[in-house]
Amino acid sequence: MMRRLLFIPYLIWIVLFVVAPLGLMVGYSFFDISGNPTLANYGAFFSSEYFEMTLSSFWYAFLITLFSLLISYPLALAIRQTKHKMFWLLLIILPTWINLLLKTYAFIGMFGKEGLVNAVATALGFAEQQLLFSDIAFIIVSVYIFIPFMLLPIFNAVDGIENNLLSAARDLGASKWDVLMRVLMPLSLPGIKTGIQIVFIPSLSLFMITRLITGNKVITLGTAIEQQFLTTENWGMGSTIGVFLILAMMLVMTVTSGRNKETGRVGRL
């Protein structure tokens, strides 16, 4: 009985802040800008414009996740070998304590025509580059922001692997590449999957960075939702995009949360 009573506050929280907002969003998706019931929003979402926008969102989210993984995995392995692991982790996590808006404006200053990047390029004899308001700048800033979130679950996974397993693999004649691909990677796969979820899902709905760094030259589903709610005030279409965004997120979580039969088992050497 006591356990049920303790569960009530959590149930109220879930209903008020999860179920009710989702229900409102789904409900609004069936109304047009004038408040009339319609299914036209769903028909409009399957038009070529929104289809290209969805593909673009998934493509940029894939690139951001890929580069975050390629940087974070070797970094996690390097930190694993150090004596002061928590110190190096803290240095990487510290930027997450700074407001996202402030970090974005710092990159605007760095990527501007008179910013640090062009100053260094000019000093080295290279021509000025217009990085600001480009998709390259968007990916760089996004990867920088998401690296700590990719790194932490991967580090927790690799740090939990016993050194005896790695020593046994080397004693059996495995090269460093074999140890990485057949021992470390399979055993750290749960951390990789978690990192992919943490990075890929929010990357689908980025909108502030696209506005400030690219000047809305990069349009994602998150940007489209912001424009529908705040600019055109078409809450129905904005809610419809939000419904499909949630469905996409659920699909990603389902795919990456699937039980891996190889997890916890070292591959043949």
Automatic annotation (TrEMBL):
* Membrane topology term: Multi-pass membrane protein
Provide the alphabetized UniProt keywords.
Cell membrane, Ion transport, Membrane, Nickel, Nickel transport, Transmembrane, Transmembrane helix, Transport
Annotated ABC transmembrane type-1 domain ranges read 54-256
Q: Which InterPro entries match?
A: MetI-like, MetI-like_sf
A cellular component term from Gene Ontology for this protein is:
plasma membrane
Membrane spanning stretches: 7-31, 58-79, 86-108, 136-158, 179-201, 235-255
Query: What is one process in the GO biological process aspect for this record?
Result: transmembrane transport
Q: Where in the cell is it found?
A: Cell membrane
Q: Which domain of life is it from?
A: Bacteria
PANTHER family xref list: INNER MEMBRANE ABC TRANSPORTER PERMEASE PROTEIN YDCU-RELATED (PTHR42929:SF1), INNER MEMBRANE ABC TRANSPORTER PERMEASE PROTEIN YDCU-RELATED-RELATED (PTHR42929)
The similarity annotation says: Belongs to the binding-protein-dependent transport system permease family. CysTW subfamily.
| Protein name (database record) | ABC transporter permease subunit
- The organism encoding this protein is Salinicoccus hispanicus
